[in-house]
Specification:
By secondary structure, the chain is mainly beta. It has 9 helices and 41 strands.
Length: about 700
């Protein structure tokens, strides 16, 4: 009997890694058919007994309201089977079967294409499924989001059919779906889209040390509920819940002496086998996956050193706490629950620091350098969102810190930007949020997504004590709960949410090879599973819907973009008809981009910067420059203290780019003669010549 259906890992253009579990110590047979195979490939497996997956006394005796005691438990023995398939053909479909005793399971998978020969790739990203048996009966509180202007109010939490039928938690409505149904329907939508692989940046289960949570995860993904991971591979990351023992010690010791965090990570290492990373004690914690032209770097954000805690701030002789929107730095640690000393005292050896100089940090630099040199399209994932408007968006020294803030992972941003990482995927705050960070203002920043909407919490943006949005993340550009207002209407005599709002969902990422034009088109589509309810608030169906924040970017082939660098003298530089990146130098330069869509950086010196034809980005830098966009739709980057003069701004076509977290609300725009003077605080940033103040509305400004 199969305890866990075959599930896929480590995809490549010539192979796949397949794992399954039985409840008996029996040999099983894997058979493969497909392109390049004259006869079926067959493998007979001898399993390993995984004692760490056996139920504890606390699990065997657990009671859950609304469920028959123990109904969620399986057999108590777990035998692991693995086969590492190699020498298959790229971009090909293979049929396979696994026979265990009298049971045969059949499915199929596709190998990855090569980086040189591919048409399209689709993957999905979601986190914080946090599965557990209680999810079958548990509904999460649904944080109030924005309302459409013509929307009716939400149902009352004290006297409404919603409150009586679905329930409330404190002053909030409960979400209409249980966690189990919400996650299941989310996966049903995903499976209907036939993704090439799934990325899950942490919190797969409600406690890594809690075996029934793992059982429930695999029921959804490779078991009785559904089996999507039998057809496409999973790329997981460690989250805070994987480091938690739940019933078995939490963040400490249980009655049998188990240390919860270590017990949780041991189970994770049993279920997931990642490619080698060169540090055996850190195996599975961080790893690289190449899928054709795509590289996914998975990091472990669980442990930062030196260890830190909220208790280290605000006391006598300690650094002060910050408050409100104050920010004094990222900090070093993403959790105050576990120290290396505690972990290693319990026998653990696999903790991986993520800070600069650590083996993980150095490994990440090596992989970034390698991937870019190979022309790969690079993404990264880890659990703790570095830029978040939610519960875990505050650093350790903030008075309202959760003690699990993701800000220390901001230390990776300069590396990600330098090496052209397209997007970073995280979770943790159980938000659906998109941020964009462009520290050097060249227009090529990094997208950050919090995708913690798989099937657990229904949180939104953090508010202060008065209920006002804290807006701690200055890089945030979209959140589901605030940017997609709920619309409530009366339908058949009862209030229904008919559109908008935060729901369970995922991010779908599609890559298209622009073979004729060169480069790659990447489309980020935020998808949500919208519940359709009848007049009794019973679930009728769920619909795949798309939020209004689909992002499309075109990535040029690096070989097609020429970079031109000035000297340490005053340069006169002229571009060609191609797309170029042109850097001035330390002295007064004259730069003409020519035709093409160019990026022009004055750097030091008082420069004359001319975009020429095409849609250009012009960043003068820190000294007084004169900028001319020329023909096309141009973007002039606002550099605080730069005092660049824009000589030919076209309010119908051109834009002003905001970077480094500067928002439109921070700008001061005043009239100076015929010109508009734009300042941030006391520092002049831009002078827009011969343009009135009234013409510079918020729509003229974009984040770069």
């Amino acid at each position: 009997m199969l305890r866990v259906n075959p599930y896929l890992q480590q995809p490549s253009s010539d192979g796949m890694y397949i794992t399954w579990f039985t409840e008996e110590n029996i040999s099983t047979e894997l058979s493969i058919t497909g392109p390049g195979l004259d006869a079926p490939l067959t493998f007979t497996t001898s399993p390993t007994f995984e004692s760490s997956l056996s139920y504890t006394n606390a699990e065997l005796n657990q009671e859950i309201d609304g469920l028959e005691q123990g109904a969620w438990l399986l057999g108590d023995e777990n035998y692991k089977h693995t086969v590492d398939l190699t020498q298959l053909s790229p971009d090909s479909t293979y049929e396979y079967s696994v026979t265990a005793g009298e049971t045969t399971f059949e499915s199929s998978f596709e190998t990855a294409p090569t980086a040189e020969d591919w048409d399209s790739i689709r993957f999905v990203v979601l986190s914080d499924s946090e599965t557990e048996p209680r999810g079958r009966v548990n509904r999460r509180d649904w944080q109030q989001g924005a309302l459409e202007e013509d929307s009716l109010a939400r149902p009352d939490v004290e006297d409404s059919q919603w409150a009586e039928t679905i329930g409330v938690s404190g002053d909030r409505l409960d979400y209409p779906l249980t966690e189990n149904v919400g996650y299941s329907n989310n996966l049903e939508i995903i499976n209907s889209r036939n993704p090439d692989f799934m990325v899950m940046p942490g919190d797969l289960i409600q406690g890594g040390g809690y075996q029934p949570a793992w059982d429930e995860f695999f029921r959804h993904n490779a078991g009785e509920f559904d089996s999507g991971l039998s057809e496409y591979p999973l790329l997981p990351a460690l989250g805070n819940w994987e480091n938690f023992g739940a019933l078995n010690g939490g963040y400490g010791l249980d009655e049998d002496g188990r240390y919860g965090p270590l017990f949780g990570r041991e189970k994770y290492h049993v279920y997931f086998d990642a490619p080698e990373n060169g540090t055996p004690e850190h195996q599975d914690n961080y790893y690289r996956t190449d899928y054709g032209p795509v590289t996914i770097l998975t990091l472990d954000s669980s442990n930062g050193e030196p260890d830190d805690s909220r208790d280290n701030y605000g006391g006598e002789g300690q650094p002060p706490q910050i408050s409100g929107r104050e920010y004094t730095g990222p900090g070093t640690d993403t959790q105050s629950n576990v120290t290396r000393e505690q972990y290693e005292a319990a026998g653990g050896t696999d903790l991986a620091d993520f800070n600069p100089g650590s083996p993980q940090w150095n490994w990440a630099i090596e992989q970034l350098e390698s991937a870019r040199a190979e022309g790969q399209i690079v993404f990264a994932q880890f659990h703790h969102a570095p830029y978040s408007s939610g519960t875990h968006g505050l650093p350790m020294n903030h008075e309202d810190s959760s003690g699990q803030g993701g800000t220390p992972m901001r230390q990776y941003q300069p590396l990600f930007e330098e090496y052209g990482v397209v997007a970073v995927f995280s979770g943790h705050s159980e938000m659906f949020e998109r941020s964009f960070v462009d520290e050097d203002g060249d227009g090529d920043g990094v997208y950050y997504y919090d995708v913690g909407v798989a099937g657990d919490g229904m949180r939104g943006e953090r508010t202060d004590e008065e209920g006002n949005l804290l807006s701690y993340n200055p890089f945030s550009q979209w959140t589901a709960d605030q940017s997609e207002p709920e619309l409530w209407q009366e339908v058949n005599g009862i209030l229904q949410n008919v559109a908008g709002g935060k729901h369970y969902g995922h991010l779908e990422v599609n890559l298209e090879n622009l073979a004729e034009d060169g480069g790659t088109r990447v489309t980020f589509t935020p998808v949500y599973s919208f519940p359709i309810l009848d007049a009794n608030y019973e679930l009728v169906d769920t619909e795949r819907r798309v939020y209004g924040d689909e992002i499309v970017i075109d990535i040029a082939d690096p070989a097609d973009i020429e970079q031109i660098f000035g000297t340490d003298r005053a340069d006169n530089m002229v571009g060609t008809d191609a797309d170029e990146i042109i850097f001035g130098g330390a002295l007064r330069d004259k730069i003409d981009g020519g035709a093409g869509d160019d990026q022009i950086f004055g750097e030091g010196g008082r420069d004359v910067l001319m975009g020429g034809d095409g849609d250009d980005l012009i960043n003068g830098g820190s000294l007084n420059n004169n900028a001319f966009g020329g023909a096309g739709s141009d973007t002039f980057v606002l550099f605080v203290g730069g005092d660049t003069r824009i000589r030919d701004f076209n309010v119908e076509e051109d834009k002003i780019g905001l970077m480094d977290g500067v928002s439109f609300g921070q700008l001061s725009i005043e009239k100076r003669g015929k010109n508009a003077l734009i300042s941030v605080g006391d520092e002049i940033a831009l002078r827009v010549m011969n343009v009135g103040v009234d013409a510079l509305t918020e729509s003229v400004f974009v984040t770069v």
